[in-house]
Amino acid sequence: MSHLSKLDGYFAENRDNHLAELNEFLRIPSISSLSEHKQDMQTAASWLAAAMKRVNLDNISIDETGGHPVVYADWLHAPGKPTILFYGHYDVQPVDPLNLWETPPFEPTVRDNKLFARGASDDKGQVFMHLKALEALFALDGTLPVNVKFIIEGEEEIGSPNLPQYVEKNKEKLAADLILISDTGLYAPGKPAVCYGLRGLTGIQIDVRGAKGDLHSGLYGGGVQNAIHALADILASFRDEHGTIQVEGFYDNVRPLSEEERQAYLDLNFDEEALKEEVGVKELFGEKGYSYLEQTWARPTLEVNGVFGGFSGEGIKTVLPAEAGAKITCRLVPDQDPDEIVALLKAHVEKHKPAGVEVTISEFDKGAPFITPFDHPVIQAAGRSYERVYEVPTAYTRGGGSIPIVAAFDQILQLPVVLMGFGLSSENFHAPNEHFHLENFDKGLRVLGDYLYEVSTLSL
Amino acid sequence: MSHLSKLDGYFAENRDNHLAELNEFLRIPSISSLSEHKQDMQTAASWLAAAMKRVNLDNISIDETGGHPVVYADWLHAPGKPTILFYGHYDVQPVDPLNLWETPPFEPTVRDNKLFARGASDDKGQVFMHLKALEALFALDGTLPVNVKFIIEGEEEIGSPNLPQYVEKNKEKLAADLILISDTGLYAPGKPAVCYGLRGLTGIQIDVRGAKGDLHSGLYGGGVQNAIHALADILASFRDEHGTIQVEGFYDNVRPLSEEERQAYLDLNFDEEALKEEVGVKELFGEKGYSYLEQTWARPTLEVNGVFGGFSGEGIKTVLPAEAGAKITCRLVPDQDPDEIVALLKAHVEKHKPAGVEVTISEFDKGAPFITPFDHPVIQAAGRSYERVYEVPTAYTRGGGSIPIVAAFDQILQLPVVLMGFGLSSENFHAPNEHFHLENFDKGLRVLGDYLYEVSTLSL
């Protein structure tokens, strides 16, 4: 009997119990951002610790962090075998506006084979699946084929303010061969995805000052520099007409896409027409020589996020503005370094500073990009496990956004990161009526169980 | 005995009476913008009509306009002689903040040979001077050497909404050989100025739209156009690095400066260092090949008055903005046409529209530029009258700003306009503690009396 048949049988038999247990977890309103839920955070952490105990994990602890606690556990009785570090979070987003929920957010309800509850998909449901995958292997084999460690935090929805420090402090304790995170989504319904890279982020604000105050455009116009014109000249200098960034050295450390990656993206047959419809544009726009997926997954960006200066009310005010500013962020890709990029941006602005104004630059928070090589065994193994269950080719994707905590794991623990998620972008994370397609709950449990066997065969 | 000696004697003898009479006029709180002063507007108009009667003018009428009335009068008993149309306004600005006035705005007070009151300089004091100049000539000669007409309006401080229509309707009645306005200033203390040109104004708003809503800069950044970048590209395309406007055809109808004008400006020895100090810039900025005075008086401009788009709060928001906009105005010089310039701006934006966005343009109100040729006899005569009294060379200037009603006179009545003012830019028009230097009240009366004789000798 194959692993998968055994897992099938086990999960089918225990489905009702599993859903009932997950519902207990979902009923705890563990909203990390609201202080009135502080006690609920402790309750959720304790529930998780108890659930880990039922799964037979060792060294379970609820670790205080200064914020909401981290729940730790491990099982390290597979000598010579790889160790997987599981990461997830037990905190959830607020639920406002409550009146838009068809059923209350903390009363889990199944409709149409979807489980509706805050946290069903993001991320309690997926954390729960990790535990149940282990439980299945213990039940079927009396042991696990790999070593495992868990850190489940309670502050992901508020930006993980305490986790990097916790990870740094427990670096040795958290040592592993890979980190597995199920907090992302499938590529599309029925089409699983392993996300093997995310973009990083860095940003600056540019403030331009001309005269000491706004001037009358009649009396002074033509003889004194206008702060908005100066700013526009700087902003226009950043990109060419296709969006290719003109900052000297900006692309120097960009890791080129491999032929395999480009082919993998091409095979996804991305529907650009559907995208144009979705965002409401007549034409897409971006760096020549790259497809939309390449542009948004594997190429860096420089975007003005906001601009301000002068009079923006109704009608006209003939002012010669003294001040103008812009906020700019860059999405970065491996191997760009956020600090280096900020230095390049500063040098660029200095070089392109128009006459007649002073320019100051301030920096925003930074996050590094991350990538686990596309052909890394832990990535390819994840793809195989997905394919065995979903019976279609796995999509190998990157994310255009940034998950700072993933970059922190990458940097502090220096582990390959496997983002193997089961959500769908239509499932209203962070919005009313969050839900989780139970089809992916069921399949995901099987994928995760299979993946433990897959990893056990790897030499890492 | 020369004209000037006779005028000197007359004004010296009557100074106290004149100031007492002016104070009556200044005590009327004729604030045109505030509806609670509607009755005061009528009072001020009636006071003016009575003052005109004392001067011996004919055909005095208080003409309703739909807003505050226009006061008309004339004296047309100098056959074969030129006719001067005097324009001024009896309305004043609001007085807030009242607590900043050292003495109440409607209780005229002399301190340090300056008359403090709302309207002392702008424009009741100067209107009163016109009347007293005529009164002096009647007293000295029993007649006037020229024909005169007066229109004194009550809505200048609210943009003269009804005057163009009034002028259009009374085109024949207002026919004259020149229009004389004393609502501007000296070039500097002790240095008189004839202003013979003003810039016009036209403006557009540019609205750029990309996607149908703001997008996540991680998920879409690199593949969808950013409305702010697109706008910045358009704005940057308008001017080169020296501010020279790059809109095709923009300068085609600009009347070149004559050598005489350039020399006259040069002779003013404009202090650029003092200007830099005043506005707080390290360097001036503008079109190459022109001095600061030429840039601001005789060259057109294109200024962004305001820009907006995306996130402008504190910190960072990684949005890919769908919308951005800018407000733009151009100061125009003869013989640019506001409608033609708007058409050129539109064509320019169309030509420079970046990919991936839609751009819409809306128009603001327009005002034509005006110029009375520098060497026109009425301009040169004004210069001579100033010089006779102030005993220094007159400055021949233009104004960088726009006075829409002047352009309207120019266009409707097609008269040479003589801007012959006696204020100083330090006199707080529109601000608390407005005042008028009585030195210029005294000298101005003599200049105006002299000018009537000057004009009587011209063949117009």
TrEMBL record, chains A, B:
CDD domains to which the protein is assigned, alphabetical: M20_dipept_like
Pfam families recorded: M20_dimer, Peptidase_M20
Keywords: Hydrolase, Metal-binding, Protease
Biological process annotations from GO: proteolysis
GO molecular function (one): metal ion binding
Parts of the chain that traverse the membrane: none
Domain Peptidase M20 dimerisation intervals: 196-356
NCBIfam families: PRK07907.1, PRK08201.1, PRK09104.1
Protein name in the entry: Peptidase M20
Organism (species): Lysinibacillus odysseyi 34hs-1 = NBRC 100172
